[in-house]
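Troubleshooting log. The previous structure file for this entry was overwritten by mistake, so regenerating from the original sequence record. Sequence copied from the archived sheet and checked twice against the printout by T.R.
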Amino acid sequence: MAVYFFYGEEDYNIDLELEKMRSKLNPDFLSMCYQNLDGPDYQSLIQVLRTPPMMFGDSLFVINVRKYFLDKKDKESITLEDSELEDIDDALKNNPEGLDIVFVLKLPRGENKKPDSRRKLYKILSKYNPKEFSTFNTLYPKEICAWVKNCAKSKGLSIENDALELFVEQIGNNLRQFDNELEKLKLNAYPKNVVTKNMIEEICISNQDLFNITKCIMEADKSGALMELKKVLDKKHPLELLSAILTMLRQWIIVKSTSSIDEIKRKTGIFKEGRIYHLKEDLKNVSLHDLVKLKENLFDVEYRIKSGEVVDMISEVECAIIR
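Regenerated output below.
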């Protein structure tokens, strides 16, 4: 079998690729032939890498390596000694037949980060089927539109052009959010299975909803922020809302910190200069530091929810919003 190294910002495409691999396993023995490990210590990791072939079919082990690439000062950071890295390299070279191992490094969206190529672990992993999963560049909205059309088609939907334009404008390049929203639109579009602009306006999280929440936060109106938050959470999953707010915050940070209109267009996918002008005006009295801090808080909550560390998701989101 083989070893893979998947990394990049587009975690949705990473998850799709992993699901394709997982679907090929024997469903009767899935609990034994599939493992997903989040930053295991050296002993646990080397034990997995040296797992002998199993009698009930191929196996797939997915290893999240984010903690190995954190700054050493980070409390979650895991440091591997040189001798341990040598053992890991040796185990990978002798990967047993019947075992696929996928190392996964999901990077923060919109920060244009790359794995630290100076790390010895990176040099080891990059020898084994590395594949970067980048987000769609918002400079080329046609690529995003084509992806959304194909995603809609896979669900038996067609989407009108004006609806598609509004859909992409509201969501940007967040593929997971597109997929989630299309699942809801599918129910609303039945039996014609055609998505219209009115459906997008009624069902999907609107820019105005997000603006109202974030504006209240920036004005230190905690009760107002929680009230606006509740309106959206009544119809949206907390992860959907977090994803949408993070997308908007990324755009705001770029608009706030960038003077070049062309650069703002390229980085945010906002092509209407009038909208950029009004955003700059709205953000005039908002601290860039506060925007960045809020983004960090929300990203942390999103990660912990996806990692299964959170019991009460709504409370966690509310705390992050008013922190």
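The chain has a mean pLDDT of 86. Archived copy saved in two places this time.
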